């Protein structure tokens, strides 16, 4: 029952957030700063990230286990921070919410070290261990109403 209450509180926070506009080019570095702790942890562990990727009304960084001349490959996914809340997405169009930045960072390092092909979804046991919750389509549509991730790859 406590878990349901926690989920309801989280979703209420997601639904009540105010939409931010995308920062101008002048504020690019400031926007990138929020991702620096995750980027540093990923790169220090020998993995790779992109620079800031603007996705319409939101931004993200992509994370991958390998780099090749044309970009990133291997086990890959993306991470975004919206209103100080952390989300992860797979290239299969699924979006997950992290309990906080630390949980997101630890989960990212965990899944990268597990290896394997790019996931269409994250392992439910790992999600439970790191407090990562898959969001339903309705929640994702409310979170990213203008730019559904599976429509902007």
Describe this structure in words.
Strands 1, 2, 3, 4, 5, 6 and 7 form a seven-stranded antiparallel β-sheet that branches. The protein has a domain at 45-151. Strand 5 and strand 6 (95-98) form a beta hairpin. Helices cover 37% and strands 25% of the residues. It has helices spanning 2-15, 28-33, 36-44, 101-114, 124-129, 137-143; strands at residues 48-49, 53-54, 59-68, 71-82, 85-89, 95-98, 132-134. With 153 residues, the protein is an alpha+beta fold. It has six helices and seven strands; from the N terminus they run αααββββββααβα. Helix 3 packs parallel to helix 4.
Task: Describe the structure concisely.
It is built from six helices and seven strands. It has 153 residues and is of the alpha+beta class. Strands 1, 2, 3, 4, 5, 6 and 7 form a seven-stranded antiparallel beta sheet that branches.
């Amino acid at each position: 029952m406590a878990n349901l209450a926690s989920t309801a509180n989280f979703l209420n926070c997601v639904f009540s957030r105010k939409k931010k506009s995308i920062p101008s080019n002048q504020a690019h570095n400031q926007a990138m700063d929020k991702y620096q702790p995750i980027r540093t942890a990923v790169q220090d562990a020998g993995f790779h990230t992109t620079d800031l990727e603007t996705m319409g009304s939101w931004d993200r960084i992509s994370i991958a286990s390998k780099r090749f001349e044309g970009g990133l490959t291997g086990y890959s996914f993306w991470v975004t921070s919206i209103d100080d809340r952390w989300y992860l997405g797979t290239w299969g169009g699924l979006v997950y919410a992290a309990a906080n930045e630390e949980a997101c960072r630890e989960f990212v390092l965990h899944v990268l070290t597990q290896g394997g092909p790019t996931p269409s979804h994250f392992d439910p046991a790992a999600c439970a261990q790191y407090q990562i919750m898959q969001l339903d389509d309705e929640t994702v549509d409310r979170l990213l109403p203008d730019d559904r991730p599976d429509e902007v790859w």
